[in-house]
Amino acid sequence: MSKEAAIVVHQLDHYFGSGQLRKQALFNINLEIRAGEIVIMTGPSGSGKTTLLTLIGGLRSAQSGSLKVVGHEICGASENQLVRARRHNGYIFQAHNLHGSLTALENVQMSLEVHGHLSKQQRYYRASEMLAEVGLEERTNYYPADLSGGQKQRVAIARALVSHPKIVLADEPTAALDKKSGRDVVDIMQNLAKEQGCTILLVTHDNRILDIADRIVYMEDGRLSKPPAPEAD
Amino acid sequence: MLGFIKTLKTLQDRTPLGLLQLKHDRLRLLTAIAGITFADILIFMQLGFADALYKSNTQYPRALQSDLVILSTQAKNFGQLRTFARRRLYQAQDVPGVLSADALYLGSVQWRNPQTRQQTSMLLVGQNLAQPAFELPEINQQLNAVQLPDTVLFDRASRGDYGEMIVQVEQGKPVTTEIGLRTVTVTGLFEVGASFSDDGALITSDQNFLRLFPRREAGAVSLGLIRLEPGYDPKQVRASLAARLPDDVQVLTHQGYIDFELNDIQSESPIGFVFGLGSAMGFIVGVVIVYQVLSTDVNSHLAEYATFRAMGYRNTYLLGVVFEEALILSVLGFIPGLIIALGAYQITAAATALPLAMPASRAATVLLLTFAMCGASGAVATRRLQAADPADIF
Ligand SMILES: Nc1ncnc2c1ncn2[C@@H]1O[C@H](COP(=O)(O)OP(=O)(O)O)[C@@H](O)[C@H]1O
Ligand SMILES: [Mg+2]
Predict the structure, then answer these.
(1) Residue B26 dihedral angles phi and psi, to the nearest 5°
(2) Global ipTM
(3) How far apart are CA B180 and CA A91, in angstroms?
(4) Which residues neighbour B87 within 8 Å (Cβ) at sequence distance 6 or greater?
(5) Angle in degrees, CA B93, B95, B98, rounded to 5
(6) Closest to A97 (Cβ–Cβ): which among B10, B17, B393?
(7) How far is the CA of A232 from the centre of ligand 1 (A)?
(8) Deepest of A90, A142, B178, B216, by most Cβ within 10 A of its Cβ?
(9) pLDDT for A37-78, tens place per residue?
(10) How many CB atoms lie within 10 A of CB A129?
(11) What separation in Å is there between the alpha carbon of A16 and the centre of ligand 1?
C-alpha cells in the first residue's frame, strides 16, 4: 500500500437484500488508485460499477473488507463519519441533478456552503470564478431549465470541483450528451483535475473518452479485471 | 452567547433554499397561501361568532355597576340564580370597605305580547331606582318612568313581533298588556338583546318586581351588588366578606362573576362544541392543503435533495428546509387571512348586530394555530425525505 494512495479497496464484497433475496453484487474487489491518477472503469451494465462508486463515495455503507479513502477507513463507519467523508469528494452524475430553483451560481455555491467556513462573499467569488473556468461566465444567473444539456453538465462539474475535492467520482457523465459536448465536458474535467491535482474515478461506456485515462479497469459480474481486448467490448 | 451570534450569522449567511423553492413555483405558493388564508378566515369566523354569542349572553352580568357580587351558593347562571336572604346584605354592610350593598331581583315571567296576544317568557329585572344596577345609560335615564306601580321598560331587541308596539311607545303612548294576571304598562324602551333562556327582558323597580312576582318575598334576593369605598382592594374585601358571611352565599369580584357566567355557558351550551368543531375543521383543511403542497414540493425535489446529501449535507438540513417553507407559508397565509377576517367581522357585525371584534389575543391565537398547522403538515411531509437516499440516485 503506497503512502500516496488516494483510494485503497481491499477484499471488498457487497450484498444487496437479505435472507432468500440476498444477492452478491461485488466479489473480492481490490483496487488502489494513486493521488492524482485518472482511472476509468468500464464494463457491461449491471456489472456493479455504480455500486462500487457509491461505496467509495460513502453514499452506501461498506459491509465487509476494507475501504480507505484519503487515509480514512470507511468500511463500518457511522452515518456521521460517512457524511463527513462525502465532503471530501466531488460527484458528477449521469443526470446533472442541479436544483431547479437555484441559479447556476447558487447551485455551485451550495457545494461550498456545506463546509460552513466560507463567508457569503467568498462563496460568491469562488463560485463565479469556477463558472468562468467551465466557460459559463455569461450564464451564472441562469436557471438550469434555461441551459442546454452540455451547459448543465458543466455547471455540475463546477459544483463538484469548486471546493477542490481530493477525489472526483463521475458516473457516466457524458451519457446524456452529444459527441461534441461530451468531449468538452471531459476535457474540462481533465484540465481542472490536473490543475487541482485531484484523483478521478470515472465510470463510462463511452469509448471516445478513454484517452484521458492513466489507467483503465474493467468490471464484469461484480469482479474487477484488466481491460479485455478491444473486440470483446 | 457567542455560539448564538455565530448561529445567527450562519443563518443569515445561508442560501434561503426554502424561500427560493417557494418563489420558483408561484402556482404552488399561491395554492398554499390560499389554503392557509381560507383556513384562517374559517377559524377567525368561528372564534368570532362563539365569542359574540358568549358576549351577547352575558350582557347584563357584564354591565353590572358593582365591585363585588354576592350570589347564592346554589346559583347556576343569570337565568337560574336561586335566591338568598337579604339579611346577608345587611351583614355585608358591616364589613370594612363596603360602601353599599343593594339587592337586585331577577325572575322569568309569562308576559303577553300586546300585538299577538301570545304568552312568552321574559326576564324581569327589579332594581333599586336610587342606585342604578347597570352601566347602561339608556336605562338609567328612564328609571323615573318605572316609579309608578306596574310600569316596565321593554327591551326593543326582544325576540318576537313587537313592531307596532314599539312605534306606539316611541310616540309617547303607553301600551298595556299582562304579566301573569296583572296588567302592566310599558313606559319606555331600551336595547340589550335576547339571551338563550329568555326571549327578552323587562326592567322595573324593586317594588314593582315584588308586585309582579307575588310568590317572591322581599327578603329573597337574586344578586347582591356591593360597591366599595375608594382605596379598598376588591380582592381583599371579597376575602373578608367571604369569611364574614355564611356558606349559603358566595362572593365574587365583578370579573369573577362574569367568568362564572361564561363558564356556565361554555359547559352548558353547544356554542363551544359547535364553533370548536368549526375551528377544528378549518385547522384540518389547512393541514391537508399545506401537507399536499409541502409533500408535492419534497417529492419534486427528491433527486436534488439526494444530491445535497451526496455533497455532505445532513438530513437535518433538509428537515430545516421543509420547516423553513412551513414557517414562510404560515406568515404569508396568516396576513391576508387576518385582513379579510377583519373585513368579514365588520360586514357580519353590521348584518347581525352581533358584537364581533378582533382582540389582539385572538389574532395571536390564530397566528399560533397557523404555525401549528404548517408545522404539523411540515412534520408529516418530512417523512417523504427518507426517499432522498443518495445511494439510489447514481
Ligand atoms: N439498490 C439495489 N438493490 C438491489 N440490487 C441492486 C441495487 N442496486 C443495484 N443492484 C444490483 O446490483 C448489480 C450491480 O448494479 P450496478 O452497480 O448499478 O451496475 P452498473 O452500474 O455496472 O450498471 C445489478 O445486478 C443490480 O441489479
Ligand atoms: Mg450504473
Answers:
(1) -65, -40
(2) 0.91
(3) 93
(4) B219
(5) 60
(6) B393
(7) 22
(8) A90
(9) 999 999 999 999 999 999 999 999 888 899 999 888 988 889
(10) 13
(11) 8
